[in-house]
Write a structure and sequence with these properties.
The protein has ten helices and two strands, in the order ββαααααααααα. The protein is mainly α and 185 residues long. It has one domain. The protein has a two-stranded antiparallel ribbon. Strand 1 and strand 2 form a beta hairpin. Helix 4 runs antiparallel to helix 5, helix 4 packs across helix 6 and helix 6 packs antiparallel against helix 7.
Length: 185
């Protein structure tokens, strides 16, 4: 089954059937199950040491150290942060001592993203916010695995209709859809 898209200039474009299958066909839900469970486990694994570490959960010193390293401009070479506006934002957060409470949000969010992805609860929304967190890590100069995680999160957002089909979204999305349905009898 092909679908058609109308451009701004009135041209009709056919969406490739493979793309439709990949992001809409329930048979591909097994692929998205594997992606979201793997990504979910990575989030949980990243959060476990933070949740048990006082430098994350009490003082925020771990996040403070990360932000301080990110905002530094070396005498030679390139700084970790390429955009001044983002460096200024992190410097503002440091000056406001936001790391004391923000570190807890980071640690708990990582765990929640992992649990929600594994359970298949609002996969599209969860993947969006987890990708946003990865984007912030990348903006702060921490490439590591964040680029891969961000890419997988984008794919899960695109596949939101079927990414949680083998999960709790199978039950939740129809119920949420009923909230927006209008019953005019």
């Amino acid at each position: 089954m092909s679908t058609y898209v109308l451009t701004r200039k009135g041209q009709t474009l056919e969406t490739p059937s493979f793309i439709n299958m990949l992001f809409s066909d329930k048979r591909f839900s097994i692929l998205w199950l594997a992606v979201r469970v793997w990504l979910g486990w990575q989030w949980i694994d990243a959060s476990l040491h933070k949740l048990q570490n006082p430098a994350w959960m009490q003082t925020g010193d771990a996040l403070k150290g990360f932000w301080m390293g990110a905002v530094q401009i070396p005498a030679e070479g390139r700084p970790a942060i390429a955009y001044d506006w983002y460096r200024n934002f992190l410097q503002f957060m440091l000056d406001a001592q936001a790391y004391t409470w923000f570190a807890k949000i980071v640690a708990i969010s990582e765990f929640l993203f992992g649990a929600l992805l594994i359970a298949g609860i609002f996969v599209g929304l969860t993947a969006f916010f987890s990708g946003f967190m990865n984007w912030n890590f990348i903006m702060a100069g921490s490439a590591s695995v964040n680029g891969v995680f961000f890419g997988l999160a984008v794919l899960l957002v695109l596949a939101w209709k079927i990414a949680g089909y083998i999960g709790l979204d199978y039950f939740l999305l129809p119920r949420v859809g009923d909230l927006w349905a209008t019953n005019k009898k």
